[in-house]
Design goal:
The structure holds 3 protein chains of 3 kinds.
Chain A: H1 2-23, E1 26-32, H2 42-53, E2 56-62, H3 65-75, E3 83-88, H4 92-97, E4 101-102, E5 123-135, H5 146-151, E6 158-161, H6 167-180, H7 184-191, E7 195-199, H8 202-210, E8 216-220, H9 223-231, E9 236-238, E10 245-255, H10 261-271, H11 274-277, H12 281-284, E11 287-288, H13 298-301, E12 309-310, H14 314-332
Parallel strand pairs in A: 1-2, 1-3, 6-7, 6-8, 10-12
Antiparallel strand pairs in A: 3-10, 4-10, 5-8, 5-9, 5-10, 5-11
Helix pairs in contact in A: 6-7, 7-14
Chain B: H1 9-29, H2 43-76, H3 82-89, H4 97-108, H5 113-120, H6 132-155, H7 160-169, H8 173-202, H9 205-211, H10 219-228, H11 233-257, H12 279-302, H13 310-313, H14 316-353, H15 357-372, H16 375-389, H17 395-434, H18 438-467, H19 472-475, H20 483-492, H21 496-522
Helix pairs in contact in B: 1-11, 1-14, 1-15, 1-16, 2-6, 2-8, 2-12, 3-6, 3-21, 4-6, 4-9, 4-12, 6-8, 6-9, 8-11, 8-15, 10-11, 11-15, 14-15, 14-17, 14-18, 15-17, 16-17, 17-18, 18-21, 20-21
Chain C: E1 2-11, E2 14-22, E3 27-31, H1 38-46, E4 53-58, E5 61-62, E6 73-76, H2 88-93, H3 104-116, H4 132-145, E7 150-154, H5 162-179, E8 182-186, E9 199-204, E10 207-212, H6 214-219, H7 223-232
Parallel strand pairs in C: 3-8, 3-9, 6-7, 7-8
Antiparallel strand pairs in C: 1-2, 1-4, 4-5, 9-10
Keywords (chain B): Cell inner membrane, Cell membrane, Membrane, Transmembrane, Transmembrane helix, Transport
Protein name (chain B): ABC transporter permease subunit
Main location (chain B): membrane
């Protein structure tokens, strides 16, 4: 008897599953893990998109943007990805070289990015500035410029990320390069005595900072918003630097190999729409690429607004990354 | 007599492992078509290699020293809570590295417990653990307890009669060490030292976080960079090969330099060690145990700070991740055990039946190859292989248990191989005279001796797989969320407190598993 | 003379209470069902077990306060007597000097003792390369070189085949006569030692149920119990 019930249930379940699979197309989206995690925007975005598309979204994740691209490269033409959400500017050249991405065909205008956007392969979905975050209770007078941070021998101690393994790490490498140019190596040398360590990723560095190992940590101008909104703590601040801040833009693209090109295009267009953009600030803790009608949350309005956005083009990054890294190594690895 | 013989299952396992490693390597190397140029070992790579070997060697030496000291002291002493201590011993090694890093900072960091204690005592200076001290503290914390555990298991195998003889002859503590403890240590050391060395050689997040500068980075960092930043798979393959070559030649040398001495017949030791009464040793043991406890306990306890956030993380996500982790861990442990038994019985045949200890040593070293291979490279290589034959979206489900299982083989092998040798030495002649061979020899002669260490090895392999994050980085997904994945996901979303709670859950599960493992390996045959 | 008077040992599930005397220079065979307390008796004499009450003396010396190593007693187990990583000479040498710093004189003694147990020329072999009988001869040689007047043999030859077992018992008998040592030996099959033993003790349920000349024990009122004990094991 029990067996019969189980069999019936199983076949019903199977039938339901099949029916669903037959009627609704599925869109597979690759992203990094915290985007699709409990506190990430993926769930909200999924609900909102599924409400309009009569389709299903499936998220496949890798640890971070670098792993995402590594996985895509491994899978090549066989990839199941219809779209990818979460690459960054510094990976664009490598990503394009994979020959996996198709033009998104979406209309990209009225962005709130500090730079003009012309690329027809990738759509920016959110952005932020890299910045040094500090605890105002412990560091009442933070440096006012990158130069002040680098040159003051009694300045605050900082915890950084290794540019060989981490996106913010690479961000600071490029920032230093923008500010110091040829002299970046010497600047690293001057900063070195106050570098607590270079960690593998952002999480370790931020954790060390919160545990009190350093006075400042390399992070984002938007990080304090998290502490204000989720923890009701206002003592964490990002230091505004006079030279300007290096820009971090997160990108999405659709694949050439997708079996659902129309749906993928629809999703690409959805990225810059209100329902997607309004989900970003308080889940991914970044600025939306296109400010929603209601504006950004209050906590974001109090954030540091850099005067100038610093940025290398993806091509410049691709060509010079090795040389920049070597200069950094030479200056810090003694 | 000419009968067609099937190859020994151990030879098949060895071939399969070699095939997987070589296949993965070739798939990576030829990814861009044609052989990639050999990377020049310039001054950068040279420095990285020198540092990698140096820190690994130092970490291994210190871990062995503390581990063996603890094992001997624990073997001589009994005290309330000893069982808990023993179970805790093999827990540290399976901690996710980030948990270990945060533990080291919680205790020895700028505002850690140690600094607070010094400040309380009126000391005003500042100290920094970055560099060698931090790296060594973390590595010794992770590995010394494991050394102690394995060594203790070995010491427990000394026959009861030998202890009685030692008492009857009035052996001094020195003579006891020389005639009873040392043969065990000599048999176990090359294997353990090899394992610890490999793990420290590959250590990566710890070295970066605690090293304090890019001069302190290991070869695995270069591999990581090549794989995830340069996307240069050819370079990954070559760097992986360099790592494999260095690790394997060092462990092989170690195995050959310390040939395994003949083992005694084993019966669980039930007697009190005669040297337990020695006054001087009481003092030594007290000092060793106190020092070990002072060093290890705060680090282990700091993990418990995650306790208050446990209520925040217990939800459907966590339960699902727990289930996924368990399933993967069991599959991985099964793979690890089957391979270890096959390899160990092939090694035994070489050593005792065919009398070629050097060939046997090759089998002993082979599992280490799986550990020496960078997990990223192995994963990427295997993924490329699997992709040719099947659906790549299912790859994670196959690769995760497979890679975790392969990585656990060196550990299960340590449990299985010595017992299989013992079985042969004890009953080999009987089995031969009865004409037992193949499956019947396994079930009649080996299984009774093997089932408990195998259960212990299974539990350890599960614990190892449970704490592993390595390849989840590449092949996670909302459909494949394990506990370590959950931990890193929470970290990435600023939720450090929740991450530490998830870390604690992982450590607790590992503790329970190693408690079971200990109960099983200590149980009488 | 070895004198055991009401030596009592208790465990939750077993109580032993031994009384037995063995003349110096004699060979006493201990028989009885397995689990009856034969090995415990030997372990008590050697010092591995301590009785809660009773007296244990050898030639008038009280053994109870002495550490195993300080007792005039050498013991040979059924198995695991030898350290597999040491040579025959070293294994025997342990009976003289656990430090193994042997003088030439001691080496000569070891050599002659090995000769006496029929192992001439085996000095550099290791236990793994020897048969079970040969290994027990090494253990016997070690007991002899130690110069201790009381030797306990705990079923030393049970794992050997009957012919070899008989040879070994004859060897033990010859050696104890030549060296004037006292021997207490537990055995499985009483017939093996019926003609060489001066005395036989039947132990069951932790007690010496009877002791006396072998013939009296084997053919006396206990004969059926002995037969049952032997056939059961």
């Amino acid at each position: 008897m029990l067996r019969r019930i189980l069999l019936t249930l199983a076949s019903l379940g199977l039938a339901a599953g099949l029916a669903q699979a037959q009627t609704k197309p599925t869109l597979t989206i690759y992203t990094y893990s915290s985007f699709a995690g409990k506190y990430g925007p993926a769930k909200t975005i999924e609900e909102r998109f599924e409400a309009t598309c009569n389709c299903e979204l499936t998220w496949v994740t890798a640890e971070d943007a670098g792993s995402l691209l590594g996985r895509l490269r491994l899978e090549g033409q066989n990839t199941k990805a219809d779209a990818v959400v979460g690459l960054d500017m510094n990976l664009v050249a490598e990503a394009k070289a994979l020959n996996l991405f198709a033009p998104h065909g979406a209309e990209v205008k009225d962005l709130s990015l500090p730079i003009a956007w012309k690329d027809d392969t990738f759509i920016p979905f959110d952005w932020g500035y890299y910045a040094f975050v500090y605890d105002a209770n412990k560091l009442p007078n933070p440096p006012k410029s990158l130069k002040e941070l680098v040159d003051n021998p009694n300045g605050p101690k900082v915890v950084l990320q290794d540019p060989r393994t981490s996106a913010p790490g690479l961000g600071l490498l490029l920032w230093m390069q923008q500010v110091y140019g040829e002299k970046a190596g010497e600047a690293w040398g001057r900063l070195k005595p106050r570098i607590v360590t270079f960690t593998k990723g952002w999480s370790e560095a931020y954790g060390l900072f919160l545990k009190g190992e350093a006075d400042m940590v390399m992070s984002y101008t938007t990080s304090p918003a998290y502490h204000v909104v989720a923890e009701k703590k206002s003592n964490y601040k990002a230091a505004a630097f006079a030279e300007g801040h290096y820009l971090h833009v997160e990108l999405a693209g659709m694949t050439r190999t997708t079996k659902e090109p129309e749906l993928a295009k629809k999703f690409m267009a959805f990225i810059l729409s209100e329902p997607f953009q309004s989900a970003i600030p308080e889940t991914n803790w970044m600025y939306p690429a296109k400010t929603p009608a209601a504006g950004v949350p209050v906590a974001f309005k109090d954030l540091v607004q850099p005067e100038k956005a610093l940025l290398f083009t993806p091509e410049e990054v691709q060509q010079n990354r090795r040389a920049f890294t070597d200069a950094w190594l030479n200056a810090t690895a003694r | 007599m000419t009968t067609l013989k099937l190859p020994h299952p151990g030879s098949l396992a060895a071939l399969a492992i070699l095939g997987l490693v070589a296949g993965g390597f070739i798939a990576l190397a030829s990814f861009d078509g044609g052989a990639p140029p050999l990377p020049s070992i310039g001054p950068y790579l040279g420095r990285v290699l020198a540092f990698t070997v140096g820190q690994a060697a130092l970490s291994t030496l210190l871990s062995l020293a503390l581990g063996i000291g603890l094992a001997l002291a624990l073997a001589r002493r009994s005290f309330p809570g000893r069982g808990v201590v023993l179970a805790a011993l093999s827990t540290t090694m399976v901690m996710p590295t980030i948990v270990a890093v945060f533990a080291v900072f919680a205790v020895y960091g700028r505002s850690g417990w140690f600094a607070e204690l010094l400040a309380f005592l009126g000391w005003k200076g500042s100290f920094s653990i970055f560099g060698y001290p931090g790296i060594l503290i973390a590595h010794v914390f992770l590995n010394a307890p494991f050394v102690a555990r394995i060594t203790l298991d070995g010491l427990n195998q000394i026959p009861t009669e030998h202890w009685r003889l030692a008492a009857a002859f009035g052996f001094t503590p020195g003579q006891i060490f020389r005639h009873l403890d040392w043969p065990v240590l000599r048999a176990e050391l090359p294997g353990i030292a090899g394992l610890i060395f490999l793990m420290c050689f590959k250590s990566f997040a710890i070295v970066l976080a605690l090293g304090g500068g890019p001069s302190r980075s290991t070869l695995e960092v270069a591999i990581f960079e090549a794989l995830k930043v340069d996307l240069d798979f050819g370079r990954v393959a070559w760097l992986a090969l360099i790592q494999l070559a260095i690790c394997l030649s060092l462990t092989t040398l170690m195995h050959w330099a310390f040939t395994r001495p003949p083992v005694g017949h084993t019966i669980r030791s039930l007697v009190r060690r005669p040297d337990a009464k020695n006054r001087r040793l009481m003092l030594v043991d007290a000092v060793v145990l106190a020092a070990g406890a002072l060093f290890l306990a705060p680090l282990a306890l700091s993990v418990l700070t995650g306790l208050r956030n446990i209520p925040d993380v217990v939800d459907a996500d966590l339960l699902r991740a727990f289930g996924t982790s368990m399933t993967i861990a069991m599959a991985a442990a099964f793979i690890a055990c089957v391979l270890a038994v096959a390899l160990a019985s092939a090694a035994r045949r070489r050593r005792l039946v065919l009398r070629s200890p050097r060939m046997a040593a090759l089998y002993d070293v082979l599992p280490d190859a799986l550990l020496a291979m960078p997990p990223f490279a192995l994963t990427a290589g295997l993924f490329l292989l699997i992709q040719r034959f099947g659906d790549p979206s299912a790859a994670g489900f196959i690769l995760l248990p497979l890679i975790n299982g392969l990585a656990a083989v060196p550990f299960t092998y340590r449990y299985v191989a010595p017992r299989l040798l013992t079985a042969e030495e004890r009953y080999g002649r009987v089995a031969a005279s009865l004409g037992l061979a193949g499956w019947s020899k396994f079930t009649i002669m080996d299984w009774p001796v093997l089932k408990r260490p195998l259960a212990a090895g299974f539990a350890l392999a599960m614990a190892l797989s449970f704490g592993d994050f390595g390849i989840i980085a590449l092949f996670g997904g909302t459909e494949l969320v394990t506990l370590p994945y959950l931990l890193y996901e929470r970290l990435g979303a600023y939720r450090l407190d929740e991450a530490s709670a998830v870390g604690l859950v992982i450590v607790l599960v590992a503790f329970l598993l190693s408690h079971l493992s200990g109960r099983w390996s200590d149980a009488r045959d | 003379m070895l004198a055991i008077e009401n030596c009592r040992l208790t465990w939750p599930d077993f109580v032993a209470d031994y009384s037995l005397t063995v003349e110096a220079g004699s060979l006493c065979a201990v028989i009885g069902p397995s689990g009856g307390g034969k090995t415990t008796l030997l372990h008590m004499i050697a010092g591995f077990e301590t009785p809660q009450s009773g007296r244990l003396t050898f030639n008038g010396q009280n053994l109870l306060p002495l550490e195993p190593a300080k007792r005039p007693v050498a013991i040979v187990f059924q198995d695991h007597n030898l350290f597999p990583h040491l040579t025959v000479t070293q294994n025997v040498g342990l009976g003289l000097r656990p430090s193994l710093r042997l003088t030439d004189q001691e080496k000569t003694l070891i050599e002659s003792t090995l000769d006496a147990v029929g192992l001439k020329g085996f000095d550099t072999r290791r236990p793994g390369e020897m048969s079970g009988g040969q290994r027990q001869r090494v253990a016997l040689a070690r007991a002899l070189v130690s110069g201790r007047p009381l030797i306990l043999l705990d079923e030393p030859f049970s794992s050997l085949d009957p012919g070899l077992r008989r040879d070994m018992i004859l060897l033990v008998d010859a050696l104890r006569r030549r060296r004037a040592v006292t021997i207490l030996m537990t055995i499985h099959t009483p017939e093996d030692a019926a003609d060489v033993a001066d005395r036989m003790a039947f132990i069951a349920d932790g007690r010496v149920a009877a002791s006396g000349p072998p013939a009296a024990i084997l053919h006396g009122s206990l004969a059926p119990r002995i037969a049952a004990a032997v056939s059961n094991t």
